[in-house]
Design goal:
heterodimer; A: mainly alpha; MetI-like fold; 2 domains; two-stranded antiparallel ribbon; flat; B: alpha/beta; D-Maltodextrin-Binding Protein, domain 2; 12 strands; 15% strand; MetI-like (chain A); cell membrane (chain A); transmembrane (chain A); transport (chain A); ABC_transporter_permease (chain A)
Chain lengths: 332, 432
């Protein structure tokens, strides 16, 4: 509705410009344009009010609070300028958060997504019981993060856990790792859980993408003599591009905001070895009552996510979002 | 009953936190506590507690029902939350400026912060007529500037709980009285193939008991109390405490994977003890009940000894570290909530709490209900205590308390030096 009105308005605009001589028709057009604007505003208003109250205002308050040393009670009064931010970028734990976030993102893109893609390709074949497998692999995504966390805390329990029993059964019992309690292993164990939890979601995305690829194209490639790998590499993969790009986007944003799974399993430990930005934020905001400092963390998190989203959409997903984010150029 | 008063301040602080995490707050919202109505009108009081483990898990809802039956115009909304989650929930709740009518408190710095924010009812006048029936030591943590802000239902102390059978197996004939003996016993236990100690490394608070007790034994109680006011923890006693703890940690006395072990879960610290897998744990008076809740429980094999003295230290063995639990009321709690607290602190109810073996008596005369020999020892040690220190993560402001927990956890994990621990705590305390 709003979009068509906009288009009408614009074409009207063009007409008005070309026939600038007639003042009367110009006035009528202006009136109609004003009426159109009013309609747009009227229809956008409810959403706009909610968005402002629930998204913009809290962001601005967090930004404001980040310039204060504030315990969260009463109004912030102890203005410290950029102190919270300078402290933040000297904080080993926070710098570690950034590093660990990067590691998780790279692991996700390098291992989790290709894994999801290969399963999706597999389940896109004619296969007995493939609906069952699709359901099976998607099931972990439906499970809540807390249940997943508790489940894997038990599986990776050093003494009685299933994981170590399995290792024993395949003759690797001597390794006997402590998983989440081992500082050098905890992040990778966590990644394992994340993969289990989220690959099904990406698999479904890829399956949807795969099913939208016309069979004719693949057939044509076959006729041209392309083998199955070549078909995948030169036909399927490029046509899957939009899906892969959105899946990477969701994966990165998810990794930046990762909280609940980590909180349930390790609380960021041992000794910060699995701490993420959100965990640090929670520690300072809700356990130490240093709300000003926690706000600074939230602001940095917001900026990182925001800048990433803008650049990614502008440069990587440009073709996919043509007409939405990058609409201005198309319309002009 | 009009709409809830909605001041600009509560709105702003709620909105500020919403900026940090909208879903978190949304999850904690919702309260429909009644204001004080007429006598005929039904009053609903919301009671937040941490009775998620036995015996409280069964006993407390029963008590609430009984109170409702005896007072038909009072409805109790019983909300039990697990310890750590409760603290997090209360933090969000405090920041939003609205506390439940009756809520669990450990007193100390956290309660002080809630009082300073103007959210807690001053009970001094209400409880004055019957305060004398309670043990004075049990009230310590809730008194500020001569005013009383909470009514206790439990008081206790931290000490070593040990498995007598495992000690015998390692040929240890009596529990250690000095730190040097403790270190020797740990070596003996290890030599006998027994895990000496259980520790919940993920939760951090159990680890801070070691450091706090060592600081009390080495530097003495006055030094600790002075540091709390001067915000300087770099004194030699604190560094030495860290060194002694490192000496212990270097022996690798804790169970495998303790760094991610929790306290009450089925493979956590309490279960390690309760299932007879480790020889001792440093824990509060609630330890036996959680041991048998998370594990099988040790029965007669369970023993208790106070934290050992350190050679050349200033502190005495009779100075105890611990804390209790009580209930505080929100600023606008109805009168029915005060009546409930009075009933809960009556000798009849207290005797039932004591009989359930999960609590220490706070009402004078209720100690005769103690049957467990270990809890009797705890009660006697408390009775003859010459000094008392509240849990550091409760006594200090939250940021300092958390820093103690975090730094000591890093020390035990071998990731921090004794000097770094004192520096970090001092730095946090000074920036408050």
């Amino acid at each position: 509705m709003a979009l068509s009105t906009l288009k009408d308005g614009q074409s009207e605009d063009a007409v008005a410009e070309s026939s600038a001589g007639s003042a009367a028709s110009g006035r009528a057009t202006r009136r109609r344009r004003r009426w159109n604007r009013l309609t747009i505003i009227l229809f956008l208003l409810p959403a706009l009010v909610l968005f402002t109250l629930l998204v913009l205002v809290p962001i601005l308050i967090a930004l404001y609070a980040s310039f204060f040393r504030w315990g969260g009670f009463g109004l912030p009064s102890d203005f410290v300028g950029l102190d919270n931010f300078t402290r933040l970028f000297q904080d080993e734990v926070f710098l570690g958060d950034l590093w660990r976030g990067l590691v998780l993102i790279l692991l996700s893109i390098g291992i989790q997504l290709p894994f999801a893609l290969s399963i999706a390709v597999l389940l896109n074949q004619r296969l007995r019981g493939r609906a069952f497998y699709r359901l099976l692999f998607f099931a972990p995504y439906v499970l809540s993060e807390v249940i997943t966390g508790v489940l894997f805390t038990m599986i990776f329990s050093p003494d009685e856990g299933l994981a170590n029993h399995l290792l024993e059964m395949v003759g690797l019992g001597h390794l006997n790792p402590t998983w989440f309690a081992d500082e050098s292993l905890v992040l990778f164990t966590l990644f394992l859980v994340m993969t289990w939890k989220y690959f099904g979601f990406h698999m479904i995305l890829y399956l949807a993408g795969l099913q939208s690829i016309p069979k004719e194209v693949l057939e044509a490639a076959s006729i041209d003599g392309a083998g199955s790998w070549q078909r995948f590499r030169h036909v399927t993969l490029p046509l899957l591009g939009p899906t892969i790009r959105i899946s990477i986007f969701l994966s990165v944003i998810g990794a930046i905001q990762l909280f609940d799974l980590v909180w349930v399993i390790t609380q960021g430990g041992p000794v910060h070895a699995s701490e993420t930005m959100s965990i640090t934020l929670f520690q300072f905001g809700f356990k130490r009552y240093q709300v000003g400092y926690a706000s600074a963390i939230s602001v940095v998190m917001f900026v990182i996510s925001f800048v990433f989203a803008i650049f990614y959409q502008r440069y990587v997903m440009r073709r996919d979002t043509e007409g939405a984010v990058t609409a201005m150029r198309g319309l002009r | 009953m009009g709409p809830e008063p909605f001041s600009r301040r509560t709105f702003l602080s709620a909105a500020g936190l919403a900026g940090l995490s909208v879903p978190l707050l949304a999850a904690c919202g919702g309260d429909d506590s009644g204001d004080s109505g007429g006598s005929a009108e039904t009053v609903t009081i919301e009671w937040w507690n941490i009775a998620t483990t036995e015996p409280g898990k069964t006993l407390w809802p029963k008590l609430a029902k009984e109170y409702e039956a005896a007072n038909p115009n009072v409805k109790i909304k019983f909300v039990a939350t697990e310890n750590d989650a409760y603290k997090a929930k209360m933090t969000a709740q405090t920041a939003s400026g609205k506390l439940p009518d009756i809520f669990h408190t450990w007193g100390g710095g956290v309660l002080k912060q809630q009082i300073d924010a103007g959210l807690v009812k001053d009970l001094t006048k209400d409880v004055a007529p019957w305060l004398g029936t309670l043990l004075p030591i049990s009230l310590e943590a809730y008194k500020f500037d001569g005013k009383t802000y909470a009514v206790p239902f439990d008081i206790g102390m931290v000490g070593f709980w040990y498995n007598k059978a495992l000690f015998t197996k390692a040929k240890i004939d009596k529990p250690p009285a000095t730190w040097a003996e403790l270190i020797e016993d740990v070596k003996k236990l290890k030599a006998a193939g027994i895990t000496p100690m259980a520790l919940a490394g993920k939760e951090k608070w159990p680890g801070h008991y070691y450091w706090a007790y060592l600081a009390m034994r080495i530097g003495g109680l006055p030094a600790l109390q002075q540091a709390a006011t001067s915000n300087d923890f770099t004194g030699p006693g604190f560094v030495e405490a860290g060194r002694r703890l490192k000496e212990l940690a270097d022996l690798d006395p804790f169970q495998r994977g303790f760094l991610n072990a929790s306290y009450p879960s089925s493979d956590g610290q309490a279960a390690q003890m309760g299932n007879g897998k480790t020889a001792m744990e440093l824990m509060g008076q609630w330890a036996p009940s959680v041991q048998s809740d998370a594990g099988k429980g040790l029965g007669d094999d369970l023993g208790f000894f106070p934290f050992p003295t350190v050679d050349g230290g200033q502190g005495a063995a009779t100075e105890v570290f611990g804390g209790g639990s009580g209930h505080a009321l929100s600023k606008d709690a109805p009168k029915a909530a005060v009546d409930f607290l009075k009933w809960f602190a009556s000798i009849d109810v207290d005797r039932r709490l004591v009989e359930s073996k999960g609590y220490q008596p706070v009402v004078k005369g209720a100690e005769s209900a103690l049957t467990d020999p270990n809890l009797k020892i705890v009660n006697q040690t408390l009775g003859s205590a010459t000094g008392f220190q509240l849990f550091l993560d409760q006594a200090f402001p939250p940021a300092v308390g958390q820093e103690v927990n975090d730094s000591v956890a890093a020390l035990i994990a071998g990731k921090s030096t004794p000097e770094q621990v004192t520096q970090k705590i001092t730095q946090t305390a000074k920036s408050q």
